[in-house]
Amino acid sequence: xGQSKALLSWGSTSLIDHQVTTLALxxxxxxxxxxxxxxxxxxxxxxxxxxxxxxxxxxYRQGRASSLVTGAKALTDLVPTSVxxxxxxxxxxxxxxxxxxxxxxxxxxxxxxPVHAGRxxxxxxxxxxxxxxxxxxxxxxxxxxxxxxxxxxxxxSVPVTSKLATLNLNTPAAFRAARAQYAP
Length: 184
Known about the structure:
The chain is an alpha/beta fold. It contains six helices and nine strands. The two termini are 21 Å apart.
């Protein structure tokens, strides 16, 4: 991408700020933990939300699973708690979060994932009894994917109206196309 995905422009703000702003809209989300790794100080400066908790992943070179562990460690005082897991390069929208939270109220023991046009997406809500497994996530065992595989009978797909739930913005072209179509 040529720069940190978190700092890419999304609408009138950075992608990381957009993610936090979207999550902060929902009172059901009692704590927002932002896991920072590479260039943590620069990313921290881009965040302008008093209600967030910053967790520093010093092992970020080990992959995304190390960020899951860092985030889970930041929540150990809330155990048991359910966790909504999202990545910075998977832009959120109310059309994704609101249905997931509604499903959570109805099915608090399920692993919830959005689905759009038959394709599963992100973010996931991991229930309180499964959330401690995030502490054990490892890249070599496929991190969150391994956790959901162990509990596949508990997965509930939640229909959402936003295609953003299924997008992966891993190339500059994909990011530009998504920003042009979906950024506020």
